[in-house]
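Hallway conversation turned thread

IA: we were arguing at lunch whether anyone had actually written out HTH arsR-type domain-containing protein end to end. Turns out nobody had. So, for the record, here is the sequence (118 residues) and right after it the structure tokens. Reply here if something looks off.
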Amino acid sequence: MFEALAHPTRRQILQDLKDGELAAGEIAARFAATGPTISRHLRVLRGAGLVSERRDGNRILYSLVSGRLALSVGDFLSTVCPEQIVLREVRKRRPASVPDAETAPASLSDTADEPARA
């Protein structure tokens, strides 16, 4: 996955796909690179599980695989960050009805001064 993310063209393709499905030709038209070069980039992204494709007549439409990037990066970080491993174990043992102290505010007044999160 990190190899797929290493190239700026592939990162831009992912950025372009975040707003929805695009045909291969539409993706290629956004770059100065040749069609075969963009096809190779799309193949790498597909191989990493970051995009999916479907055929519509003679067109190939690409879309992001929902949540794949976040889950993969989260899994990677949790394996290399000891603090994250400890937090994950604590959350596994905590009953589902108990809010996470790191993410849940103590009261509604705690959220009044916080900036909106995107």
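OS: looked through it. Strands lie at 22-23, 51-56, 59-64.
IA: good, adding that to the notes. Residues 2-64 form a domain with the Arc Repressor Mutant, subunit A fold (CATH 1.10.10.10).
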